[in-house]
Design goal:
- By secondary structure, the protein is α+β, with helices and mostly antiparallel strands.
- It folds into four domains: about 15-240, Metalloenzyme, LuxS/M16 peptidase-like (Cytochrome Bc1 Complex, Chain A, domain 1); about 265-455, Cytochrome Bc1 Complex, Chain A, domain 1 (2-Layer Sandwich); about 480-695, Metalloenzyme, LuxS/M16 peptidase-like (Cytochrome Bc1 Complex, Chain A, domain 1, 2-Layer Sandwich); about 720-905, 2-Layer Sandwich (Cytochrome Bc1 Complex, Chain A, domain 1), CATH 3.30.830.10.
- The chain is built from 32 helices and 24 strands.
- The strands form four sheets. An eight-stranded mixed beta sheet has the order 1-6-7-5-8-4-3-2, sandwiched between helices. A six-stranded mixed beta sheet has the order 14-15-19-16-18-17.
- The chain is globular.
- The chain starts with 9 loop residues before the first strand and ends in a 7-residue tail after the last strand.
- About 50% of the residues are buried.
Length: about 900
């Protein structure tokens, strides 16, 4: 699945036991059908239930999808679906403090709103108690959420704050404007977050009526994926949800259809910003339509990096610094969108002419078989990697449920597999016409060539007899406890010094993750070489002596592998996800990348342009400005040290001055495996993996040896800093100070819990309750406490995203909350919930093989085993309230805090 643009998918992030009082026995669920391991049931009240057992996960994901999004909103109701997403977290009769419950159960929850649906989910440790709690929560707030006026009065300002966050992004706002111009009547042309005026003025009665209309069992689909017993789970679902009566109202499907576009449309946006953008889009079919799969392939042919046609025409020629594009799979006929970033000194008209000329001339240069197969390999790989994870699949189903039926996911995959060159060229000719495009100004056309977009097909007939492919084999039940992980870990040393830790187990889809970390240089040898370290790592996958960048990407797609390489300072990190049968050839290709990089000049030039574009995009953004200033103040390493934090201007000058020859020399001088660590978790053959790692890393040396640069505690004098960022609707606050703290300090477990209650438990933390829930000042707020594992160099930090008009009020409220913690401390109930949530969260972390592979590698470097994690959890479990409060009084020092704010603080004067 492609990442959807911010203005289309609006998300409420939340970091959640009481059972339904059953009065009557609901009728038994009806089992409908099973497709590829997913079984659908229907309850007597109309609720559809999808069960997806996966014993390999030590977690369960509960995801409920409501068939209501911005498409269903009427006049004056814009943003109502998204506003409800916020309001249902305000509580229900049996769950009055949902954020607190989320924390105490160690849940990883979310709520998102899009054009065709709203969904809520929780991922948590797989226990009967947790599952019952989650079912109780979702069934109670389905029909009993308070949706109270007192909550609306504070929450609408939080949503407005979220609205203003989107307004800070010119590229995102341009997309809104293009969509708005493209759709004359259909609600797809309206931003999901809605009109600020509607958000602020919605009557509580209207919001309650909207809630009671759409939040009902017959308008929702409940998906449960992970380590579950199917028979017991469907009975629990019926116990909690089956007692909800089927509503008597009849829902009417929205009937507005967008008329055929009759000429090219134009949009111009003028705002403060640092990078120019040119964009265009075309109306296309709906997601279930047979044309959608070839359109997805066509989009990848145009935009993928490095072989996409738009990429080659715009980025490789340096007319643009970056480009992207994607089709939107919707219930009704949708849209395909393309965009390119252009540096200020470049002519925007040149990029625009090139983009539109390429799209208009596709008929003369049709897609080739090679391009189609490459795109299909990428898209099918992405689908398969997502499907191999039951929790990701459970969430992915919301998108297909919104289109009409969850089985459309498999129909899409099957259709993608069958796409031909003729299919791609046919849809290109059908949809890519100037009269169907929205870019800029209106252009009269004496003989308009219009597109008649086909209607959404009958989904019920598409899926009626669909059986799907064979379900993936079940995997083992894996216990993610520290003791079991240590018992299952096989470790060893490769000649030359590299160390590895392996945890082999069966997984869904035979998925495996690996983390390889190289360690290079020293404090002295890396002086004035920070940019070179960054560029050397980024250039590794841009080509080898045998393969181009394009060939490397094609080979990783063929091997169903996601491989990322990054480097900074003393570390180079390679993260790998693939399947068991492909791991050995993936390792061989990674070895080729590490040992035989070609460092092509054209790729280096493009990389410099991409970095400069990224810097330019940050120059006027409050969050980037505040973050950069806070880092520079709190980490005053001397200039030249590889940890020195540079300004945006300094970074830009360094990238402009960088030479490829220096990057090549840096690689030759510094890269080695003497202190490398490797973690591998998932389905693999231990002997084969050991052999491949040995071949890759054995006796790899370099002229410059590795010596760990020690960390340092900087006792920074507190300051108060404000940076004005004109025409930015949102502001950012960072409040930080350094602490001389290592993670073996006796106070560290208590500080973990103290910070968790202060600002780490998200919506139910002290800061979140005060600044977001009560005052409505901030959309995002939190705090953190870090302790270094090797040096006494830790930090306390906190942040808030807010309306700049509330700057003084927000800081005052923030200081009051810190003072309350020091004056009265936390309560026993707060500690109980925080401890339970944190402990379960650790279990969830170790259940994710990607995370586990990274921990295995890091623990080798620190000379630790997972027994260390187990001991930390024991210490947290044994904490008393007095210990936590005493530790916070000792280490929480408000008078040492440095404040950094960035926002448009002068707009009130204007």
């Amino acid at each position: 699945m492609k990442k959807l643009p911010y203005f289309l998918v609006i998300t409420l992030l939340v970091f959640v036991q009481v059972s339904f009082a059953q009065t009557t026995q609901p009728p038994p669920p009806v089992k409908n059908f099973t497709v590829e391991g997913i079984t659908q049931y229907t309850l007597g009240n109309g609720l559809r239930v999808l069960l997806f057992p996966d014993p390999s996960k030590a977690t369960v994901t509960v995801n409920i999808t409501y068939l209501v999004g911005s498409r269903f909103e009427g006049y004056g109701e814009s943003g109502m679906a998204h506003l409800l997403e916020h309001m249902v977290f305000k509580g229900s009769p049996k769950h009055t403090n949902i954020p607190q419950e989320l924390t105490s159960h160690g849940a990883r929850p979310n709520g998102t709103t899009w054009v065709d649906r709203t969904n809520y989910f929780e991922t948590f440790s797989a226990t009967d108690e947790n599952l019952k709690w989650a079912l109780s929560l979702e069934s109670d707030r389905m029909v009993n959420s308070f949706i109270a006026k007192k909550d609306l009065e504070t929450e609408f300002s939080v949503v407005r704050n979220e609205f203003e966050m989107g307004e800070n992004d010119p590229s995102g706002v341009l997309m809104e404007r293009v969509m708005s111009a493209a759709y004359l009547w259909h609600n797809y042309g309206k931003s999901t977050i809605g009109s600020k005026e509607d958000i602020e003025r919605v009557p509580i009665d209207n919001l309650q009526a909207f809630y009671h209309k759409y939040y009902q069992p017959d308008n929702s689909v409940l998906t449960i994926a992970g380590k579950i017993d199917e028979a017991k789970t469907i009975q629990l679902v019926n116990d909690y949800f089956g007692v909800i009566p089927r509503p008597t109202r009849v829902l009417q499907e929205p009937y507005t259809l967008e008329p055929t576009q009759d000429g090219e449309r134009n949009v111009e946006l003028r705002r403060v910003g640092d990078v120019q953008v040119v964009a265009c889009g075309y109306h296309i079919c709906s997601g279930p339509h047979p044309d959608y799969a070839p359109l997805e392939v066509l989009s990848d042919i145009l935009t993928n990096q490095p072989s996409g046609r738009l990429y080659k025409a715009l980025v490789e020629t340096k007319k643009a610094s970056g480009e992207f594009g994607f089709p939107m799979a919707m219930h009704d006929p949708g849209f395909i969108y393309f965009s390119a970033d252009v540096l200020k000194e470049k002519p925007l008209a040149d990029a625009k002419t090139t983009m539109l000329g390429l799209l208009d001339n596709m008929t003369q240069q049709p897609a080739t078989k090679e391009e189609v197969e490459r795109a299909k390999n990428t898209l099918l790989k992405n689908f398969e990697l997502a499907y191999n994870s039951s929790d990701r699949t459970g969430l992915m189903m919301s998108e297909y449920i919104a289109q009409g039926d969850w089985r459309l996911a498999f129909l899409y995959r099957d259709a993608l597999d069958k796409v031909t060159v003729d299919d791609v060229n046919r849809v290109m000719k059908t949809y890519f016409k100037p009269s169907n495009r929205t870019v800029g100004t209106f252009i009269p056309d004496a003989k308009p060539d219009r597109v008649q977009v086909p209607p959404t097909p009958d989904v019920s007939s598409l899926v009626k007899e669909y059986k799907g492919k064979q379900a993936l084999a079940a995997a083992e039940e894996f216990d993610p406890s520290p003791a079991n992980i240590d018992a299952r870990t096989k470790s060893g040393t490769i000649p030359g010094g590299a160390k590895y830790s392996l945890v082999s187990k069966s997984t869904r889809g035979n998925t495996v993750f690996a983390n390889i970390t190289l360690r290079i240089g020293s404090e002295a040898s890396l002086r004035n070489k920070a940019i070179l370290a960054d560029l050397a790592a980024d250039m590794l996958n841009k080509g080898t002596k045998q393969k181009t960048r394009e060939q490397i990407k094609d080979e990783f797609d063929r091997l169903k592998a996601d491989v990322s390489i990054g480097g900074s300072g003393q570390t180079v990190t390679i993260n790998i996800q693939t399947e068991r049968e492909y791991l050995a050839p993936v390792f061989r290709l990674v070895s080729e990348i590490l040992h035989e990089p070609a460092f092509p000049q054209d790729e280096f030039d493009k990389l410099i342009q991409e970095n400069l574009s990224g810097i330019e995009q940050q120059r006027s953004e409050p969050q980037a400005i505040a973050s950069n200033m806070a880092q520079r103040l709190m980490n005053p390493w001397p200039e030249g040290d590889f940890r020195h934090v540079y300004s945006f201007e300094e970074m830009a000058q360094m990238y402009k001055a960088a030479q490829l020859g220096d990057v090549k020399k840096f690689y030759a001088d510094f890269y080695n495996s003497a202190h490398a660590t490797i973690g591998v978790a998932g389905a693999f053959d231990e002997a084969a993996v050991t052999a491949e790692l040995t071949a890759m890393l054995k006796d790899w040396t370099s002229p410059v040896a590795y010596e760990r640069a020690p960390g340092k505690f900087f006792d920074v004098a507190p300051t108060d800093n404000k940076v004005n960022t004109p025409d930015k609707a949102n502001a950012m606050l960072f409040a930080e100070y350094n602490v001389p703290l290592r993670d073996d300090d006796p106070d560290w477990p208590a500080l973990i819990m103290g910070n968790y209650m202060l600002g780490g438990g998200f919506l139910n933390s002290r800061l979140a309750v005060r600044l977001r829930q009560k005052e409505g000042f901030s959309y995002g707020v939190g705090s953190g406490m870090s302790a270094n594992p090797l040096d006494q160099a830790g930090m306390f930090f906190s942040y808030a995203i807010y309306n700049p008009d509330n700057s003084e009020k927000l800081v005052a409220a923030y200081k009051e909350e810190l003072a309350k913690v020091l004056a009265t401390g936390f309560t026993a109930d707060e500690l109980k919930d925080a401890r339970g949530g944190w402990l379960q969260g650790q279990n969830v972390n170790r259940s994710q093989d990607r995370t586990l592979a990274g921990m295995l590698s890091n623990y080798l470097f620190l000379n630790r085993t997972f027994a260390w994690s187990g001991e930390l959890e024991k210490k947290v479990s044994a904490l008393t309230l007095d210990q936590v409060n005493a530790a916070m009084k000792k280490w929480l020092t408000p008078e040492k805090i440095t404040y950094v704010q960035a926002g448009d603080f002068d707009r009130k004067k204007k």
